[in-house]
Amino acid sequence: MTIAETKTLQNSLANQVADPCTLVIFGASGDLTKRLLIPALCNLGARNLLPKNFAIIGAGRSGMTDEEFRSQMTADIKTFATTNIEPELWQWFVERLYSVKTDFTCANGCETLKQRLDEVKEKHQTRGNALFYMAVPPDSVPEIVERLTEANLIKQTNDFWRRLIIEKPFGHDLDSARALNQTLLKVAEETQIFRIDHYLGKESVQNIMVFRFANGIFESTWNNKYIDNIQITAAESLGVEGRGAYYDNNGALRDMIQNHLFQMLALTTMEAPKRYDAESVRECKQNIFNSIRPYQNTDIPLTVVRGQYAAGKIDDQAVCAYREEPSVRKDSMIETFVALKVLIDNDRWSGVPIYLRTGKRLSKRVTEIVIQFKDDRLTDFGDMPTKNLTPNTLVLKIQPDEGICLQFGAKVPGEVLSMQMLAMDCKYSDYFGKQTKNGYETLLYDCLIGDCLLFARADNVETNWGIVDPILKYWQNAAQDTLQVYSSGTSGPIAADKLLERDSRKWQKFSK
Ligand code: BG6
Question: What is the pTM of this model?
Answer without folding.
Answer: 0.94
